[in-house]
Amino acid sequence: MKKFLLTLSMTALLLFTAGCSCPFSDKTADSKPQMNTAAASAAEVAPDFSYKELSSGKTMRLNDLKGKPVFINFWATWCPPCVGELPHIEKKYAEYKDKMHFVILSVDDNEQDPARFIQSKGYTFPAAYGDHQALGRAYGIDAIPASYIISADGHIIARIVGSMNESSLDAFLQKAF
């Protein structure tokens, strides 16, 4: 019995520390965020996509947001590192919302789970839901959390895979300016 509990505990610990696997891949997010700004060249146009705002139910498109930089964060309610960075995103949303757009996009299997979660936490950032299969292919997302900075004219400036703390999120958002 002792050996079984030890094995079970070690397995649970391993799964928790591995990060979150996206529904469109078997890869996991590293515990350290991996930023990639060199590959996100000015020539790389951000793929347009539609999404549903969870608070209003309104359908939007990424291209509707041109004119200001856009911060996109792909997350899920079942992903502990994703959920862990949401308070930092909320704080930075309050600070940057007049300077840039935020799209905090759930890749959950349904839109009800993230809508309930966001409401229960009282978050005010623009939470959204989209087709996680299409988004995963379009953006090459193989693990979450994953975040992108899109320039005001629609080009990918930077991307990062992995959870960010407040200071790393602030440094990431500064890449938009």
From TrEMBL:
<keyword id="KW-0201">Cytochrome c-type biogenesis</keyword>
<dbReference type="InterPro" id="IPR013766">
    <property type="entry name" value="Thioredoxin_domain"/>
</dbReference>
<protein>
    <submittedName>
        <fullName>Putative thiol-disulfide oxidoreductase ResA</fullName>
    </submittedName>
</protein>
<dbReference type="Pfam" id="PF08534">
    <property type="entry name" value="Redoxin"/>
</dbReference>
<dbReference type="InterPro" id="IPR036249">
    <property type="entry name" value="Thioredoxin-like_sf"/>
</dbReference>
<keyword id="KW-0676">Redox-active center</keyword>
<dbReference type="GO" id="GO:0017004">
    <property type="term" value="P:cytochrome complex assembly"/>
</dbReference>
<dbReference type="GO" id="GO:0030313">
    <property type="term" value="C:cell envelope"/>
</dbReference>
<keyword id="KW-0732">Signal</keyword>
<dbReference type="InterPro" id="IPR017937">
    <property type="entry name" value="Thioredoxin_CS"/>
</dbReference>
<keyword id="KW-0812">Transmembrane</keyword>
<dbReference type="GO" id="GO:0016491">
    <property type="term" value="F:oxidoreductase activity"/>
</dbReference>
<feature type="domain" description="Thioredoxin">
    <location>
        <begin position="40"/>
        <end position="177"/>
    </location>
</feature>
<feature type="signal peptide">
    <location>
        <begin position="1"/>
        <end position="23"/>
    </location>
</feature>
<keyword id="KW-0735">Signal-anchor</keyword>
<dbReference type="InterPro" id="IPR013740">
    <property type="entry name" value="Redoxin"/>
</dbReference>
<dbReference type="InterPro" id="IPR050553">
    <property type="entry name" value="Thioredoxin_ResA/DsbE_sf"/>
</dbReference>
<keyword id="KW-1015">Disulfide bond</keyword>
